[in-house]
Fold these 2 entries.
Entry 1:
Amino acid sequence: MEARRGNQRAMGLWLGHLRRTPLVLFLILYTIITGGPFLWVASMSLRTTPEIFDNPYGLPVPAHWSKFIAAWTVSNYGTYFWNSLIVVASAVLLLTVFGAMAAHCLARYRFRGSRAVRIAILSGMILPPQLLILSLFQILLQFGLYNTLPGLIVAYVATQLAMTVYILEGFFAQIPQDLFDAARMDGYSDFEIFWRITLPIGMPAVFTTVTLNFIILWNEFLYAIVLLTDDEKRTLPLGIMHFMGAHQLDVGMIASGLMISIAPIILIYAFFSDIMIKGMTAGAVR
Amino acid sequence: MAVVTIDRLCKRYDGAADLSVRDVSLTVADGEFMVLLGPSGCGKSSALRMIAGLEPITSGTIAIDGRPINHVPAKDRDIAMVFQSYALYPHMTVRENLAFGLRRRKMPAAEIDRRVQRVAEKLGLAPFLARKPHALSGGQRQRVALGRAIVRDPKVFLFDEPLSNLDAALRVTTRNELVKQQHELGTTTIYVTHDQVEAMTMGDRICIMNGGEVIQIGKPLEVYRNPVDTFVARFLGNPPMNLMAARLERQGGGYRLQAGGSSFEAAGHAPDALAPHAGGPVTLGIRPEDLYEEPTGPAGARRAAMRFRIQAVEPLGAETLLMLSGVSGEEITARIGRDTALRPGAEADLFLDTAEIHLFDPKTTKAIPRTL
């Protein structure tokens, strides 16, 4: 009797596993498709180009860690990295500050022309960047910002502002009006209310835009290649391009460069995704 | 000291054709608990928000202690408000929520701490000061909202339906607690609600609003006993006052009413007030509690018999509600003692205490005044 019941339980467990098998298989497949190329590049970043051409799928034995030092110093990746960091960090900071203020106003105040302002800002999302590149080039040239990092920062802020405002406004508009009324009764000015109520409560949305903007701009290529020409001003995506000549391809160095460029994104995501998901699911407003 | 004077206050929202608040005038005495009562959409919340300074005033004046505050911003009016949703700042602890309004007023930190501690102890919130609002029960949140108003020691309290998010049992205890606190503090209070029980039990006076206008202002029982029109008559009291068509006839030196197949003297009303309606229709108002099973009252008072068919019997424990239909089909509710033998489907005489009847002009719905 006991044995039979034990058998039944074992069968039940097996059936449970069996039912989940398709899902597990799908997850394994998905992980291979997304994670595989990443791991491949990671292993290539520790191998030299001749080794890679000899055996593309080989394991990095022995691991050439010195390649990263070479990439950072000899191949100018250090410069590209700092350029990218300066441009992207400044752009994300400006986007967060201006985007949040604009979103707060659009979400909270009804003023003459608020619809027009909203449409003007959000129309930035409609136009593809390729369409704007010529006029942008011309404008930056006139203002003496062409081939400068501040010029690229301004361009980045302009292109990403629409999405930032869009995401933040949606979230800010859900914060109950009573909170703002209560803060007004408590004696706070409009800017203080933005600073002490909207921003802290809207933190999950702010983190979302920070992460998104950082990833998008960190990988941005089109504006960077058109608006920057000097080698010492290039950002990381351009730096990697540098290793792709017309007739030769330093695959090993490109892989090392990619690993360097991807590191901050992984860090940012690892740090913020937790807060982001927590904020989104805990219902910060209620 | 704070006397709130409102003079011909009007509010028109952008794009709206009609006024949401029309010519509202009232004076709230120092330390008084004034309840604004009315159905939803009657303009009571709009009026409150204008007093708070959250809504611009279309026309009229609001003054505190004789000083108009129309153009004083909300933050400088020295008014505290408790919101229906409590509006606690979710990212702050209870302590920070309580201190938020004080910090803005550049109060020394020690004084803020002292006040927060005192209010927290008064309201039983001391154990929760380090918690955030989402970790509190509904009743505790409500107390934090109240504490946030008290801690500022303002001239005027405004309450916007603060009890409507609480369950029935908690509502009763919180109601009493709130009245107790207000009496202790002696702060002028304006309290908005659509709940007539809250209005009757809490208010020193109540101001009944409908369609953006003030219909009647008075002490709760005064208004209950002498409603100025059929709206107030039906709005106050649960179940509401029964209204039925009647005829007023002159007979000898007095007046008699004919209603529901019964004829009785129009008691409680001066002949002068009744004269214009003689020989014509009037609306007869009967409170459910003024119908009895027994033909005579304790002091031998005469009661008029009226014939009804009993549609339903609702025993509530302490009392029993009868749903009745009269001879001409009017629907009547009666509230009688708990030990009744009456059963649905039967016909029975119920007896009306004629001294307690209310009469209204059917055209204007205004009350025909009673002798006091």
Entry 2:
Amino acid sequence: MARFCSGDSAAFEALYRRYAGLLHGHLCRLIRSPSAADDALQLTFASVIRSRGRFTPGARVKPWLYAIATNAARDLFRRGRGEELSTPEQLGAWAEPVQPGVQDRGLELRVRRALEALPPAQREAIMLHRWEGLSFAEIAEVVGVSETAAKVRAHRGYERLRELLADLKEDG
Amino acid sequence: MSRTCDRILREGSPQGPLSAELAEHARGCRDCTATLETFALLGGPGAPPPPPPLDPRLDPSGLGKARPWWVAAALAVLLLLATAFGAVLALGVRGAPGHPLMGGLTAASLLLLIAVGTWSALSPHGRRLRLITVGLAAVAALLIVAGATGEGGALPFWRAGLPCLATEVGATLPLLALLLWLLTRSSPGALKVVAAGLAGGAAGVFALHLHCPVSTVSHLVVFHLLPWAVLTGVALTVRRWMRTRSFAP
């Protein structure tokens, strides 16, 4: 990032190669529409180019990029590009089974509907923690809150999910 | 939630086994058992489709060295302060003589608000400063009302007030337009716009504070403070309509 900020365009391509896959996965999970996720990814890297001067030298690149991608996804939702989750087919082939080795689309849909039922701030915190593997300090940077607030959001989200999925655990 | 529960929340993973210490805790803790069950239901990250190739329009070659964000922020602070003092010079100082300490404190709080509000609105990490800006605006508003001397009340209410309203709107609108344009270069955020709106409006309020000879509470509230609040609200609405050119924090 430091090389890109100082005008090295090859560093941008390296940045894209390294993070585009991760960010695209994050955007697919957030937006659920691969075509809108593609657009959000381009918006993310367009923002990286335009706003490279807003990157703090020495700061971590990954949370900064996730913050941009999350903001781009929110903007697409606000402008009505986010698609509603309605059928298992819409989950697409990229969606991971909720329990490894179990191709149960019905179960998967219920888990995803439970995620949908969470307040957006809690859902974002859980997705970044659970699926993107970000630490709470990194999540705090992405969503622009304190580390404690990020932890509280995730904890409350997991609690709510636990309640929403209680019948699944009993069935299992 | 104990410290170990907190560690399980941070480290518990369905992909890898927990350390012996955490596993032993989880076996005896209903809360952590439920957390780990929820983790297992959620699973790990799926394999998304491969990312699309980079859009050829996003060609970074020939961009040169990045200009740090604080250059634009510092220029904006200087421009707003210059506008505030320029408006005072253009209008003249003939404000109602109140207590000099109160008048000085009000002017200082408004100038500080212009600087802190503009800087925090344009900074990538200004959340705390933005909250301070809102606090400073409340303090400045209180000082303005508390400093009212009741003088100048002989003029008809609207005749005395409309020039103040026009001056404040005229001084604030160009500054707000500039700040909103600068704000489209970063991710949207209501608190950023509020900070920008309060800073932009403070320039007009500062000029009025030194210029306006009417010092009744009703005049100050209706023609000095209310337009300030309304313009900040308008800024929030306008920013929602504006296209965001960058989603960087």
